User: Fold these one by one.
Assistant:
Number 1:
Amino acid sequence: MVTGTAAGRPPSPAPGDPVLVVDDLVVEHRNRTSGEIFTAVDRVSLRIGAGQSLAVVGESGSGKTTLAMAATGLGPRTGGRIELLGRDLDALGRSELRALRPEVQVVFQDPHGSLDPRQSVRSGFAELRKLQPERTTWITDEALLERVRLSPALLDRYPHQLSGGQAQRVCIARALLMRPRLIVADEPTSGLDVSVQADVLRLLQEIRETTGAALLMISHDLAVVRSVCEAVIVMFRGQVVEAGACEQVFRAPTADYTRELLDAMPGSRWRSRR
Ligand SMILES: Nc1ncnc2c1ncn2[C@@H]1O[C@H](COP(=O)(O)OP(=O)(O)OP(=O)(O)O)[C@@H](O)[C@H]1O
């Protein structure tokens, strides 16, 4: 459970209560030269509750990132309805939207690209604390680094002095500092050495369990999805071709495309039986 809400925050959702509900989301892009319209996300619906984890899988270009950004109000949307923490995003004014924004934190694929190279870990935290003074008093910098299994000795390091795994943990710490109700992790381990991938995934899991945040994970790696998420939606050319509990979808996929994804996994133990 999320506890100790800062002033003005929406009430803490109970485990399983809806954090994000998306209905018929559409994202279209217009080609500037030809004027042609490309539908990157085509009538996608999803729901994720507090403490739950949902993965979006699909090959490159299937619309995963576009969906995740639009679904959380962080990217453009052509149509559809989004409810974040019980609030219809279209019904909110600018200041209400701004107040809701810290509730969603995104961890990207390239940790070094996400961090300001001129900022030490400590000054990066300080900047966030200045932006959100009430929300961020709950933990010290040292304890925050300990929460992501990093030594407080790293506080005065700059991004180039951190390994990929350490930098990703700093990004996760920055997200955690905001006490978000929803963490979006966009291929959070694909830029990391195999040796540290599992640790970072475990950390995201642990944060979900201990804070009650919901986790929306984007990945093309089905092994990662299976190890972290309870539910999955499979995207192909902007549409959802299959959705359900991970266990069910991996054991008995119903869509040909899901079977192809499973079969394409190198040395897959989950190769579908046809
Ligand atoms: N601003 C944009 N203008 C035009 N087309 C776009 C824009 N952003 C994304 N697209 C297109 O939308 C489609 C979906 O892209 P998206 O990045 O969401 O896919 P993805 O599944 O996340 O892929 P990857 O795994 O490679 O990141 C792609 O064909 C992409 O080229």
Number 2:
Amino acid sequence: MTEDRVLPPTLELDDVSIRYGRHWAVRHASLRVASGELMALVGPSGCGKSSLLAAINRMTDLLSECTITGDIRVGGDSVLDAQVSLPQLRRRVGMVFQQPNPFPLSIADNLHFPLREHGIARRERREQMVERALRDVGLWTEVAGRLDRSALTLSGGQQQRLCIARALILAPDVLLLDEPCSALDPIATASVEALIRELKGRFTMLMVTHNLAQARRLADSVSVCWVEDGCGCVVESGGTEHIFTTPSHPVTRAYCQGLAG
Ligand SMILES: Nc1ncnc2c1ncn2[C@@H]1O[C@H](COP(=O)(O)OP(=O)(O)OP(=O)(O)O)[C@@H](O)[C@H]1O
């Protein structure tokens, strides 16, 4: 996040299926997030949205019962290859969760930690990067005088912005957001939404949300997931206005008008 750079790469899922043991959670899901765009992934509970996000940064590797087929590419590079280094992949693909989850460390150490882990040893360099990251998420003026205080003393919205700073401080290409505002009150939600809007163009983002109004406010494109024959699938993807005003699939029409789901 801290360096000027060329456009971020595209994110592509091609015929992705995800199985937990014998249960297919997702079948044949394909979608494409264009460079620097934000795609919202919407759909009812259990249609596989979080599973798709977890597959992209290979968090699913932690689950012995989980099998993924198909192809997932970041900037054309396949992320599912066995040779892919997971630390490098997670550096390229940052993730923000529903519940703000700062480490139980100081505000500054939440950001020094990933920098140290990735070999940035010089404290002075790290301090510059920490300040820039906090400025980027609009937190610097709020926390500059108390960087050594516990991150857990921040409000929910401040904690989530700190978590976004932590996800972005290593300059990922792609940012995955799993219902980033659902645990926040309306004022904190507005500040996190404003931040996400500012990040558009600089990162390629895929955001799960149950909030259709939020998807409409923020996203450039929308993918609608559904459960068919017990498995999650993507029924339709398209530009946000198309999905909300002239959807092609009857499920999209019903879901986006609040008639189903
Ligand atoms: N670790 C797991 N082990 C077994 N089954 C799982 C696991 N994680 C998810 N599932 C199953 O996969 C399916 C999709 O779940 P997932 O959490 O991806 O859906 P979702 O659309 O994100 O739901 P929600 O909106 O409620 O978060 C569900 O049937 C769920 O029970």
